[in-house]
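Entry type: protein chain
Record version: 2
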Amino acid sequence: MKLMLWLAFAGTLAAQNPLDPRQYRQVANRGTQLMESTSAAIPEMLRAAAPLIENAKQAVKALNSPEIASDDSRVFYSYLTNLRAYLLLLETVPKPYPFPEEALKQITDLRTAALVAEQGFRLLLDTKETGARGPDRDQLQRYRDANTKLSPPADGRRVVFLGDSITDGWRLNEYFPERDFVNRGISGQITSQMLARMKADVLDLKPAAVIILAGTNDIARGVPLDVIQNNLTMIATLADSAKIKVLLCSVLPVSDYHRSQDPRWEMSKVRPPATIKQLNDWMQGFAKQRGFVYVDYYADTVDANGMLKVELADDGLHPNGAGYRAMAPIALAAIEKTLPAKAAPQRKRR
C-alpha cells in the first residue's frame, strides 16, 4: 500500500475518527498480503506461520462477504489477533543472510499496517460502545431541525414515508411534485429503531397517512420474524390510534445478479427470498385483518427467479432510477385510494 494511503489512515485515526468500512477492508487485505509475502522470504515462516496466515485470510474473506459487516468487531479482532501472533513469530524465527531489502520494506509496511489496525480497532470499539450507550441510538436527531421547520399540513393530505435506506434515497419531490410527502427514511435502520422514531418523525407531523417500508435490514441482521412482526404491529397501531391512515409496504425482493462486480452484492444469502416472502405474506394478511392498505411493490419488481429484476437495482438491493420509477405509481395509487381527492363543492343553483 502506498505511503500516502497509510498517512491518510493515520490522519483519520489521529483525529479520533474510526475508519470507514471500506478502509477496514483495505487495511485487512493489505496486512494479509504482507503476511504472505514476508513469509515467502523466510523459509521457517512458511511452515510456522501457515495457520496464522490462513486464519487471517479467512477473517479477510469474512470482512469482504455480504453476510458480515466490514467493520464487524468480532471478525476484525480475529484478523488482528492472528496479525499480532504473526509479528511475534516473525521476531523469533531465524532469517536468511543477506536478507532481501524488499522483504525488509515489507516487514516495515506490515508493522505499520498492524499499528493502523490496532488503533482502528480501539476506535471501532469506542464508537460502538458510545453508540450503544449514547442518547441517540435510534437517530432521533436526524430530522429534528427539519421537523421543527416543517409547516403544518395545509390540506389534510400530508403523507410521511417511514423507512430505511430505500426510503432515505427516494427523492420524493422529483417523483411526486407538489405533494405534501415527507421523507423520514434513515439508512440502515431496523423496525425497532423506526418504532422509537414514531412520535418525533410521524405522529408529531400530523400526517393524514404514513407509508411504511421496513424489514429488509431486520432480515439481514437475523432479527426473528416474530420480533419484526411485533414491531410493525406497534408502528401501525400507534399510527392508527392517532387516526393516521396506515399503508404497509411489502419488502422488495433482492438479487445476486451483480455479485460479479462485488461479492458483497450476493444479497440473497443474508436476505433469503423465502424469508422475504414469508414476511410479506404476513404483512398482507395483517393489513387485511386490520383494514390497512397493503402496498405490493414485490409483485411488480420480482422476476421469474424470485429475484429483484436486474434492471431495477445496481447492487441487487437498493432501487436505482428505474426501480423508483417502478415503485412510484404503485405508491401513488395506494395513497390516492387511501386519501381520495375531495370533490369540489357544487355551486348552488339560483
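Comment: Residues 144-338 form a domain with the Rossmann fold fold (CATH 3.40.50.1110).
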